[in-house]
Each structure stands twice: as structure tokens, then as C-alpha cells.
Here is the input.
Amino acid sequence: QVQLVESGGGLVQPGGSLRLSCSASGFTFSNYAMSWYRQAPGKERELVAFISSAGDITNYADSVKGRFTISRDNAKNTMYLQMNSLKPEDTAVYYCRRTAYWGRGTQVTVSS
Here is the structure.
């Protein structure tokens, strides 16, 4: 069965960095585009970043452009989200997504 497991979240000070990972199993990872979403308390879930199956096409929400980088390692069935210059408004649960499937999420809290 398809499984998506996020890791790497935590508490970080404003201006700090975190790298999230999404470990995938149960399907041919290299055949699928993948995305990161996030949901802050009281807000709707929003798309953060997208990466094509080969990793050659990426897109970002305007709010994270220039600060976040999405990448993937198809040999390791893993997707990443490098988050730099973090802001309090980046605080949210971050989810990994493949078409029709979601991970359980990992909490990112940006606070001093």
C-alpha cells in the first residue's frame, strides 16, 4: 500500500533552517510528481511546492519563493523540502502528497 512518511519538523527560531523529508513506499516513486502542502491553525491547507517526477520542474508558492527548495532522490524514494530564513508565519503542519495520497504530516514551529 502507498505510504508517505514525513520527518524533520521541529521548533526553530526565526531566520533558522529545517529540512523536511518524505519517505515513500508502496509505489514506483520515480513515476509520480510530488508536492509539499502545509496547514496552519485555523487556515486551509495550501500548496507550498511541487516537483515533477524527474525532478526537472519545480514550482513554489509566492510566500516561500527564494527561501524554500524542493528536491527528490528517486534512488532513495525520498522527497525533501529545504526551508531557510524561516518566519513565524511558516508555522504549520507540513504534508507530503502524491496524487490521491497524503502523509500524516510533520509539525514546524517557528518561534523565538
